[in-house]
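On clarity, I found the account of how folds are encoded harder to follow than it need be. Since the whole study asks how a given chain folds, the encoding of that fold should be made plain. The format is easy to grasp once an entry is in front of the reader. For illustration, here is how one protein appears when written out as sequence plus structure tokens.
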Amino acid sequence: MSTPTLIVVGGGGGGLCTAITAAQHGATVHLLDKQQELGGMLHIANGEFSGAGSRRQREHGIDDDPQRHFEDVLRISHGKVDRELAWMSVSAQGETVDWLDELGFPFDPATPGLIHGHEVYSVPRTYWGVDHGRSVLRVLLEQLTPLLESGRVVLHLGTAVTGLLTGPADGRVTGVRVQGPGGEGQLHGDAVVLATGGYDANARLRNEFLPAHCSSVLIGCLDHATGDGLLMARELGAAVSADGIFLPVMGLIPDPRRPGHAVDYREAFVELAPAYRTPYEIWVNKRGERFVPEDTASPERRERTLLEQPDVTMHVVFDQAAVDAAPVPLIRNPGGDWDTDRFARACRESPWVTRADTLPELARELGIDPAALESTVRDYNLAVEAGTDPRFGRTVLPAPIGTGPFYAVTSVAASILSRDGLRVNTDLSVLTETGEPIAGLYAVGEVLGNNVFAGDNYVGGMSITPAMTLGRRLGARLAGAGHDRSAA
């Protein structure tokens, strides 16, 4: 029985878990990444993962199990997940949490918790580290290090995969073409695993999958997410979903230095969730009109409503009194680096903030009809005075907007996570348009598209956790029993 050789393309969470587990089960693994460091989106991600029935839940007195987790996933996703793949992941995600726990993962003390940036689970089953996605990365790299030292994993950084190699007779994928520090070359193996992540940094490819009116959404991910694995597999006839689903990430700020891109949200984003701060502001579209209650507890409601606004753009409008009174700043980041003093300075100086002495002047700076913005603010102030917002039903009405200077932070819908991706079966074999497995080719992680695990919504932890969980499963299976080279 021969020792299998696997080629894993992409060193994010899914690729790392696949490579680590395969090597621990006896395979030789070539792990490739076009970047000069491993980790993919874990460098910027919040790193939230979910799992039911975990040891940590039991220690906190939380009664939960995978079936209830799955029911929540179906509820939040409106039943639009791939039920087989989603259950395959959800049923084992508690084990993934316990695995990380056993490895000494530095859980944030608030976990397991409820996350209000997405529609909320029925019980706390979401976890994150003290250093967000980098906490996950550090634990995985600790597992990888001895495998590198033993030669079980051979690492190829700064190495781009430029194509897939196939056998001349049967079309089986037998390896990859690469462009690396040593020039062009080839690597051969018993199986190739695409863990190449998403495509959202490739605006042309991304826009193939977006509704037409969303083509101007901001790019919010890292630059390496260009859809390489999807494109390579598509050249071999792989099936790619095209569900027409898009739900924006809200609160990202256009980067004045990079048109079409968002300010890195590790640096700054607009906090829109009322669970985390009281809204003193109103949100208006490019016509100067409010469009949703700013205190809505439903992220999905505000996300879907933003999609209906001109150029999927909103302006968060407030006054000096709000700057002085709000105990939690409007602009935040995961590192907690923003306080009220820093936000006040940003209101005076930052290019992210539009400022004016009067509302008409602010409107003109924003390209809004001054009369429309004045009318909107007047109606809002009457609602504050009356203690009720008859048009939108906002119930949190802390103060009128009337004390100059006046400010606005513009936010545009953003894409961070690829919704569509390669079609696979429950073996994670990549499928052709006719539903046949492409022999020797597998895929895991975001290259599958988030719709598989979240349907038409965002579901807490259902991105990185399926990548890790199914990556571990795939690595163990491809390494097991010498890996049958005749199998698809």
About this structure: Residues 481-488 have pLDDT under 50 and may be disordered. The longest strand covers residues 173-180. The chain is about 30% helix and 15% strand.
